[in-house]
Amino acid sequence: MLRPPEPEILQGDALPSTGFDITSTRDKMPAEDVNKAPRTIEEFEEQEDKAAEELGQVGAGLGNRKAPEYTMNYQQAVTAEDVFLQIGPKTPSSASCENLIVRIKMPGDKKENVDLAVTTDSVTVNSSRHSLTLPLPHGINPDQSKASWDTDQETLVLTLKLDREFDFINF
């Protein structure tokens, strides 16, 4: 079963050099960088908090690109029936809000230079001057969300449709 390799098959040093070195750093990783599985709920929560904090540190390690200023506000779809007749289950609290409005100030940028990616739990905005990865406090529906550009204020306005589990109770 075991026999020496055939002479016409190139192996090891007999292979022609490509000019590229193949190396591995798997064994050389420091012990603190290795992701270890949490053993308790507290360790799991600490790891989740660290991951959320790293996501929240916008613009880190991106060279000369800055993290833009942003604001988040909740918005209700209020009609005359809600205001004057007070018919319906809506309350003034954020539990009755349908949208999350995110305003990202991007001075010096134009609409054409902005790259936007929206997922169910985060928003990523990149341009030549700014970079932002923003975790969202609630899940959203990207298909029903909208984005617009305010040219006067050089602001990207995102209207994100909230997708919460018990919305059928509030509306």
Verbal overview:
InterPro entries: CS_dom, DNAAF6, HSP20-like_chaperone, PIH1D1/2/3_CS-like. One of its GO terms (cellular component) is cytoplasm. One of its GO terms (molecular function) is dynein intermediate chain binding. One of its GO terms (biological process) is axonemal dynein complex assembly. Belongs to the PIH1 family. With about 170 residues, this protein is α+β, with helices and mostly antiparallel strands. It has a domain at about 60-75 and about 100-170: Immunoglobulin-like (Sandwich), CATH 2.60.40. It is about 15% helix and about 25% strand. The strands form two sheets. Strands 1-2-7-6 form a four-stranded antiparallel beta sheet, with no helix packed on it. A three-stranded antiparallel beta sheet has the order 3-4-5. Strand 6 (about 140-150) and strand 7 form a beta hairpin. The longest helix is centred in the first third of the chain and has 16 residues, at about 40-55. It is elongated, with a radius of gyration of 26 Å. The relative contact order is 0.15.
Overall structural class, as computed from helix and strand content, comes to alpha+beta
Subunit arrangement of the protein: single chain
Calculate the mean pLDDT score and round it. Answer: 77
Distance between the termini: 73 Å
CATH level 3 topology of the domain at 59-73 and 99-170: Immunoglobulin-like
GO biological process, one term: axonemal dynein complex assembly
Family: Belongs to the PIH1 family.
Organism: Operophtera brumata (Winter moth)
Domain CS: 86-171
Q: Which key phrases capture this entry?
A:
171 residues; alpha+beta; Immunoglobulin-like; four-stranded antiparallel beta sheet; three-stranded antiparallel beta sheet; 15% helix; elongated; CS domain-containing protein; protein-folding chaperone binding; CS_dom
